[in-house]
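Figure 6 in text form: structure in, sequence out.
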């Protein structure tokens, strides 16, 4: 079988497939395992402690309750693939998936075509970086970066706006302000914030011990959690103390100016778009596979197409489905389904 994606989801699945004796290949578009982590901003660390950040069979090295940096995670994933001798084929970007007479055909950018009776799409939780169209209305001399291209404050001028009030937006805005930049943070809604530690315990100890991390996304608890995704470990007060100016939703842009929902505006030299990601699965050319938005429709990893599966997407089953230390639950279940 073919697994598209050799990140944390694909590697976890590979671990279980190997133990079940299933023949498979892991195809990854990058030139090395873990590249998607190594390319994030320099200071990024996990908000899950190492205790809850390991794939099956091999622990992430280091102190159990410390937080790994992004390069450590990248190296760990590369070492994981090597440790278990998983059949990873790097530099193999899938460009088209079709189906002929019950057999899947995967076209790669290299020109290779792979035939398989079963395919798992394990391309990760994020999909493609999303930048709103209003970015096109800013002057050409305004520095614009999506959060995935941001590395450190040195690459930016003094007056910066961060658009997007999720975890990435909060962390980047705080880092920029600490580096002496003038920072405005535009957020569409004020998300709840949670401390990294509660009553002397890490937040993920509580989520795991109470099993809230495993509440199904379609349950009452899961629906409430999905609707109120919190900012973890970066309280609003900390940003305010660092000098970050909070602004409401950005509604338009013109020249060097961002305009907000309350009628106010800021003039900027640079914008970081922390506006998230969107899946675009239109490279999958199989009738009935995609929904109206061009996204692969699935339920608990299964699609409407027999033999085509999904793994590692946000809230695929529960809050842990896309997290490094929790994706193994979905991976093991899917591996057994595939083997059966």
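Output sequence:
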């Amino acid at each position: 079988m073919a697994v598209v994606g050799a990140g944390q989801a694909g590697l976890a699945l590979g671990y279980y497939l190997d133990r079940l004796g299933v023949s498979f290949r892991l195809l990854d578009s990058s030139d090395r395992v873990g590249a998607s982590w190594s390319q994030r901003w320099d200071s990024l660390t996990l908000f899950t402690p190492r205790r809850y950040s390991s794939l099956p069979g091999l622990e992430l090295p280091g102190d159990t309750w410390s937080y790994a940096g992004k390069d450590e995670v990248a190296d760990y994933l590369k070492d994981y693939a090597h440790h278990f001798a998983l059949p990873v084929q790097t530099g193999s970007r899938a460009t088209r998936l079709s189906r002929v007479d019950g057999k899947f055909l995967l076209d790669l950018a290299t020109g290779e075509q792979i035939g398989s009776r079963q395919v798992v799409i394990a391309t990760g939780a994020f999909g493609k970086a999303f930048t709103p169209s209003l970015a096109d209305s800013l002057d050409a001399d305004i520095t614009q970066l999506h959060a995935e291209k941001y590395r450190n404050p040195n690459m930016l001028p003094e007056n910066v706006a961060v658009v997007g009030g999720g975890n990435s937006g909060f962390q980047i805005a705080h880092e920029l302000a600490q580096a002496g930049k003038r920072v405005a943070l535009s957020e569409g809604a004020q998300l709840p914030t949670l401390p990294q530690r509660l009553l002397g315990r890490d937040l993920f100890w509580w989520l795991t011990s109470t099993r809230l991390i495993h509440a199904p996304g379609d349950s009452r608890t899961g629906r409430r959690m999905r609707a109120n995704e919190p900012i973890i470990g970066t309280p609003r007060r900390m940003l305010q103390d660092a000098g970050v100016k909070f602004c409401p939703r950005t509604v338009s842009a013109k020249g060097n100016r961002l305009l907000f929902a309350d009628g106010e505006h800021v003039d900027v030299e640079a914008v970081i778009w922390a506006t998230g990601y969107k899946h675009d699965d239109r490279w999958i050319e199989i009738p009935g596979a995609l929904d109206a938005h061009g996204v692969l429709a699935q339920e608990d990893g299964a699609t409407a197409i027999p033999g085509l599966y999904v793994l590692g997407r946000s809230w695929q089953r529960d809050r842990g489905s896309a997290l490094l230390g929790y994706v193994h639950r979905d991976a093991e279940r899917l591996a057994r389904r595939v083997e059966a």
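Caption detail: The first strand starts at residue 2 and ends at 4.
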